[in-house]
Design brief:
Blueprint lengths: L4 E11 L2 E11 L2 E6 L11 E5 L4 E4 L1 E6 L1 H7 L3 E2 L6 H14 L6 E6 L11 H5 L7 E5 L4 E4 L1 H7 L11 E5 L6 E7 H14 L2 H18 L1 E9 L1 H14 L5 E7 L6 H17 L1 E2 L2 E9 L27 H13 L3 E6 L2 H18 L7 E4 L5 H9 L3 E4 L10 H7 L10 H7 L2 E4 L10 H10 L19 H8 L1 H6 L17 E4 L16 E6 L2 E5 L11 E2 L1
Parallel strand pairs: 1-4, 1-5, 6-13, 7-8, 8-9, 13-14, 14-16, 16-17, 17-18, 18-19, 19-20
Antiparallel strand pairs: 1-2, 2-3, 4-24, 5-21, 9-10, 10-12, 11-12, 15-16, 21-22, 22-23
Helix pairs in contact: 1-6, 6-7, 8-9, 9-10, 14-15
């Protein structure tokens, strides 16, 4: 019986060992069969299709090692506010959205920046001035808080008597105690998000997932690690698997562990995640571990720091050591991969302490635990992370100078110079996995690589670089977003490399990024994206590089 075999010739390829020009590689079924260091096709096979790439650049499919799929798909349908520079621009955008959708029951917006407020507090009154008659819910750019108007507070049932959830807060007027319109951390996660989820249908969630998948494939992402999986997400993944047969995008999930009052409640969530990890193990859908969020974010001063913020405040962790250690120890013993959100320098200290204790209790074994974000971290903890064999999971898009104004202002000291120190982790010998954390930032991988290699802004190229001493080389950045990102989700023998025996997940770009200025990454993009040996995206026009195949 003939074998489905395609031979790609005359290619420049990012291999695990570097970039090699003038290569050919063959795909049989869903696997890469062979990679040859010459453009010649050998041996020739009558059943093969030959594609001459005419020198085009081929790299493994990007693995977005930290994202939120349903939230990304939904965010693409929300009112976009990242470009708003002032409160007046936010208000004008909301008024326009209201006028364009007069029958909408509520307005959902996303990605507003604290810098747009120019020192003002985000209050319900500011939103009431734009849209007073229906609820307005605006996700902050970092997705760690939601800014709402008075109608939304009423819809949520939030009053002066509503208690703050553990690890979060409802901002309140200091005199009256009334909610002012901001819900931070677990207040967003446990009050706002469930309320909005109840308004959505399975059909809505399916459309969000389909949108995320299609946008990812068109940008060159072939695999994604969802970092906050809950029941709605999981059921949407399973429905998609049923619809597609084989998912066109590989999905790994980390089950989100909510901080609860008792150790027993927390451990019950770990046990459930362990059950899911055993049950869901298809080649394109797996539950691999758990996600824990120790702290919040610097922009809203909810990240846990060793020293106070510029205004003298600090933030208690969502998970303190006493609550965290039993959960981490149990998950480690169960063989689950642990991903810990730690943005503040004190948060990374707590994470490392908990992991070290789990290692002591459970003994040595092959692990693949990760710490997420690490926006501020001490040099000592960079070394600790490397010694423990942990993955540093970081997002260049969070260092974009266009979103740094408020980040810098709330710290306003020496810590600014140690923000996002990617090269320190690699110098210490740690594995660095690059991702986007979409939709907290744009999902496209190539602009992410531009920020990684320049420390400049993909949103506003006129801005100066953000401490360029931490910039990565282009080849290193691409490896961190493919090979090392695959390693970060225990897929290093299946994905992230163009090598014999690996899954045939690869991207053919319009232009070779090594033969143009780094600014070219902002305009470059795929002509063809292949997942599991099947073309999942192809550019529409010949000028964009549609490939013509010929039979040998």
């Amino acid at each position: 019986m003939p074998t489905n075999r395609t031979i790609y010739t005359n290619a420049s390829i990012l291999t695990p060992r570097g970039v090699v020009d003038g290569c050919s590689f063959s795909v049989t079924g869903n696997l890469i069969e062979d990679v040859q260091p010459s453009a010649a096709v050998s041996p020739n096979r009558e059943d093969a299709t030959v594609v001459d790439l005419a020198g085009r650049f081929v790299l493994p499919g990007f693995v977005d090692a930290h994202t939120h799929l349903l939230m990304l798909g939904q965010s693409l349908q929300k009112v976009q506010l990242r470009s708003a520079k002032t409160v007046e621009e936010i208000q004008s955008t909301l008024r326009t959205a209201r006028a364009e959708n007069p029958d909408a029951p509520r307005i959902l917006g996303t990605s507003w920046l604290y810098s747009a407020l120019d020192g003002q507090e985000p209050t319900r009154q500011l939103l009431d001035a734009a849209v007073p008659d229906i609820p307005v819910y605006l996700d902050a750019n970092d997705l760690h808080s939601v800014w709402v108007n008075s109608a939304a507070l009423a819809e949520l049932g939030v009053t002066s008597d509503t208690a703050d959830p553990l690890g979060g807060s409802i901002t309140r007027d200091p005199d009256s105690g009334e909610a002012t319109g901001m819900l931070l951390e677990t207040a967003a996660q446990q009050i706002v998000w469930p309320a909005l989820a109840r308004q959505a249908t399975d059909a809505d969630r399916d459309s969000w997932l389909d949108s995320a998948i299609s946008h990812y494939l068109a940008s060159g992402v072939t695999s994604a690690v969802d970092m906050a999986v809950g029941e709605d997400d999981l059921q949407a993944f399973l429905r998609a698997q049923s619809r597609y047969g084989t998912l066109p995008l590989r999905i790994k999930g980390h089950w989100f562990i909510h901080r609860r009052e008792t150790v027993a409640e927390n451990l019950a969530q770990v046990s459930h995640a362990s059950d899911l990890a055993r049950e869901i193990t298809s080649p394109t859908l797996r539950i691999t571990g758990i996600k824990l969020m120790i702290d919040g974010v610097i922009d809203s001063c909810t990240a846990s720091m060793k020293e106070p913020y510029a205004d003298g405040t600090n933030a208690e962790p969502v998970w303190d050591r006493e609550a965290l250690i039993p959960v981490v120890t149990a998950a480690d013993a169960a063989g689950l991969q642990i991903a810990i959100h730690a943005i503040g320098d004190e948060a990374s200290n707590i994470a490392l302490d908990a992991l070290e204790e789990a290692y002591r209790v459970n003994g040595s074994r092959d692990r693949r635990h990760r710490i997420e974000h690490l926006e501020t971290v001490t040099k000592e903890n960079v070394e600790r992370l490397a010694r423990l064999g942990l993955v540093a999971s970081m997002q260049p898009v969070h260092a974009d100078p266009a979103v740094q104004e408020n980040w810098r202002a709330v710290l306003n000291d020496h810590r600014i110079e140690r923000g996002f120190p990617w090269t320190e982790f690699t110098a210490a010998g740690a594995t660095l996995a690059l991702s986007t954390d979409a939709p907290t930032a744009p999902y496209e991988p190539l602009p992410n690589m531009y920020i990684a290699t320049t420390r400049k802004s993909a949103l506003d190229t006129s801005l100066p670089a953000n401490f360029p001493k931490y910039a990565l080389g282009l080849e290193d950045a691409l490896q961190h977003a493919t090979r090392d990102a695959a390693f970060s989700c225990r897929a290093e023998f299946e994905e992230g490399s163009i090598a014999p025996g690996f899954r045939a997940d690869f991207v053919i770009l319009r232009a070779n990024p090594f033969k143009q200025e780094l600014e070219g990454l902002l305009e470059n993009g795929p002509t063809t994206v292949v997942v599991n040996g099947e073309v999942q995206y192809q550019a529409a026009s010949l000028s964009e590089g549609t490939l013509a195949a010929r039979s040998s």
